[in-house]
Automatic annotation (TrEMBL):
The keyword RNA-binding applies. The gene is dusA. This is tRNA-dihydrouridine(20/20a) synthase. Keywords: Flavoprotein, FMN, NADP, Nucleotide-binding, Oxidoreductase, RNA-binding, tRNA processing, tRNA-binding. Its EC number is 1.3.1.91. The active site is at C106. The lineage of its organism: Bacteria, Pseudomonadati, Pseudomonadota, Betaproteobacteria, Burkholderiales. InterPro entries: Aldolase_TIM, DUS-like_FMN-bd, DUS_fam, DusA, tRNA_hU_synthase_CS.
């Protein structure tokens, strides 16, 4: 079990929510979070969604273990049974997570079959019961990530009443993906692109519930967008852009948290990741190529980046030391310079 660092105060965690990286299935595992923490010391990081079933019946350390340097870090849970969620929230707190988040936004059919994710928005009282059970079980904040509507339901009153009901159960932070979730007819990928973004709905929630914190998510790709939303809202959550163009994150601490400028280079981050990959291989037998996939966007937009990605993606090199692979990957970068 991880030995957690002292958890941040409510004020420092609220500050960390100014900018966060979204929970993304198959992406934001502990290796991805290690990489992201090299780029930003301040940003709040989230796990992938972990289902209550996986924790009740599976390998708890595999799902919950993380490194101290990942703080501040939040655990996202998927489930719809209050008692199960309370038990899993206690596990998350015991393992040292700084926040427990309930997923009410995932539209996948697999998640719907489990009766959780976005379909829970149709049952706000059940969500409130889940939140109440978790709030009563743990001392760390319990937050909810949700959409602004489901299917063709676009009335503002739908999401307003959802937030109102859930907040009465003790939730004070709502992370709002500013799109509807279409539960039939669209894939999870299409659900991230096709339903139109309606940022004004999130801003209206803040006006109607000024005592609550609202973090906006969906389609955020530039620092200008982040600055614009932070004028009105309490935080911004970036997703795919942070993953595919991670060097953007290197500017966040100074730009959005007022931290001193750091001397940081792509090469230094890559070298730190190479050493991390070697350490994971020695300690756990983890192949470096399963970790390197998270940093393939590091040189995006620079000459030689495509060939650099190809080297780090070459499974024929998986028997080589990561530092050797890094040296090979830098040859095309040097040639293109």
């Amino acid at each position: 079990m991880t030995v957690a660092l002292p958890q941040p105060s409510p004020d420092s965690l609220r500050r960390a929510r100014r900018l966060s990286v979204a929970p993304m299935m198959d992406w934001t595992d502990r290796h991805c979070r290690h990489f992201h923490r090299l780029l930003s010391r301040e940003t709040l990081l989230y796990t992938e969604m972990v289902t209550t079933g996986a924790l009740l019946h599976g390998d708890v350390p595999r799902h919950l273990d993380f490194a101290d340097e990942e703080h501040p870090v939040a655990l996202q849970l998927g489930g719809s049974e209050p008692d199960d969620l309370a038990h899993c929230a206690r596990l998350g707190e015991r393992w040292g997570y700084d926040e427990i988040n309930l997923n009410c936004g995932c539209p996948s059919e697999r998640v719907q079959r489990g009766a959780f994710g976005a379909c829970l928005m149709a049952e706000p009282q059940l969500v409130a019961d889940c939140v109440k059970a978790m709030v009563d079980a743990v001392a760390v904040p319990v937050t909810v990530k949700h959409r602004i509507g489901i299917d063709r339901e676009e009335r503002y009153g739908f999401v307003r009443d959802f937030v109102g009901t859930v907040s009465e159960a003790g939730c004070r932070v709502f992370i709002v993906h500013a799109r509807n979730a279409w539960l039939k007819g669209l894939s999870p990928k299409e659900n991230r692109d096709i339903p139109p973004l309606r940022y004004e709905t999130v801003r209206q929630l803040k006006r109607d519930f000024p005592h609550l914190d609202f973090v906006i998510n969906g389609g955020i790709t530039t620092s200008g967008q982040v600055e614009n939303e932070l004028r009105v809202l309490d935080g911004v959550m970036a997703g795919r852009e942070a993953y595919h163009n991670p060097w953007w994150m290197a500017s966040w601490d100074q730009t959005f948290f007022g931290a001193p400028e750091r001397e940081l280079s792509r090469e230094a981050v890559e070298a730190a990741m190479a050493d991390y990959m070697a350490g994971q291989a020695r300690a756990h037998g983890t192949p470096w190529n399963t970790i390197a996939r998270h940093m393939l966007g590091l040189y995006n937009g620079l000459p030689g980046a495509r060939r650099w990605r190809q080297v780090w993606s070459d499974h024929r090199l998986k028997g080589r030391d990561p530092r050797e692979v890094m040296a090979l990957a830098h040859q095309p970068l040097a040639q293109a310079a």
